[in-house]
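Sat 14:20. Reprocessing the chain from the morning session after the first attempt stalled halfway. Input below, unchanged.
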Amino acid sequence: YYVHNLSPDFKLGVAAGSYFGLGLEYDDDWAGRYYFQEGQFLTFGLNPVAAYRINKYLSVGGGVSVVVSNYEAKTAARNLEPGSGDGRLEFDANDTGYGANLGLLIEPREGTRFGITYRSKVDLEYEDKPDLKNIGPLLQTALDVTGLEGSKVKLDMEIPQAVLVSAYHEVADKLALMGNVGWQDWSGFGNIDISLDSDTSRSATQDLGYDDTWHFALGLQYRLANPWLLSIGCAYDTSPTDSSKKRTPALPLDRQVRAGAGLQYDLNQDVTLGLAYEYMDLGDGRINQQGGNLRGDLKGEYQKNHIHFLGVNLVWKF
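Finished this time. C-alpha cells:
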C-alpha cells in the first residue's frame, strides 16, 4: 500500500495484492480424485484510489481494480480397461478483469469512526483446450462422442461483490474496540457458465447452489507500553452452502471461524514493525456426491480443514 498527500484533505493511494483465491492439492490416489485432484484460483490486483475529506466528520473515496488471475484444475479420469491406470485431465488459463470500489468514512468525534465500503464484482473468462493424458480406448470413444477432445472450453466466473460496514471506538487512552459486519455475493460466484467450442458448440450453467455469506468480527487494540500495540480479534463467516450434495472437494468451504493476534512496535516516529498470526477453521465440510460409474460416490467429512496465516508488515512515513 502507498498513500500520497496532495493536500491535508486530498489523498491518492494504490494497493497491490490479492484479496480472493484458493489453492489445494490432494494425494494422487485419494478417493475423490475423479472429482478433483489439484488446482488453484489465484488473483493479483492493482487498485489505485483517491480520497477526499469533505469536512471534519465525513470523507469519501473510490478507485478501480485491475485483477490478473489464473485458474488451474487437474482431475483424474477413470479408464474402463482393467489394469490401465488413471488418465488425467488438465485445464489451465489466465484472464484479466476489472472492478471498482467505493468507501465512506464518518467520524462523529475524535476516537470514534464508522465506515462502509463496497467492492464490485469482477468478471473473469477462462479459455483453454483441456490436456488429456493416458486416456484409454473406451474412455477416448466417450470423449469423441461428447466433442471434448481438441475443443476449447470456456468458463465464465466472477469474484463476488461485497459490502463491509465497520466501527472503531476508543474507550480509553490505551484501549480501542472494533467491529465489522459484511456481505458477499457468493450466489453469483456459484453460477459458472460453461461453453464448449467445437463442431457442435454448446453451453450450460453449473449451479453450485451457493448462498450469499455474512461476516461478523470483533476485535480490540491495547497499548501495552509506548512503543508496543497489541491487537486481537475473532470472526465468523456463514457457509456458502449447507448442502453436502452441493459441496465439492474443489472448494470444501463450510462455516468459518477465525481467531488472530498481532503485535506492532514503533521503532521511531516514522517506522513501525508488525507481526501477526491468524487461525481459520473451515468446519467439517461434509460431502455427499453421487458420480455414477465413472466417478463413483464420494461421501465423508474433513477431520482437518483449517488454514494458518502468518504476516509481517512495515509502516514507513516519509
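The CA atoms of residues 177 and 220 lie 4 Å apart.
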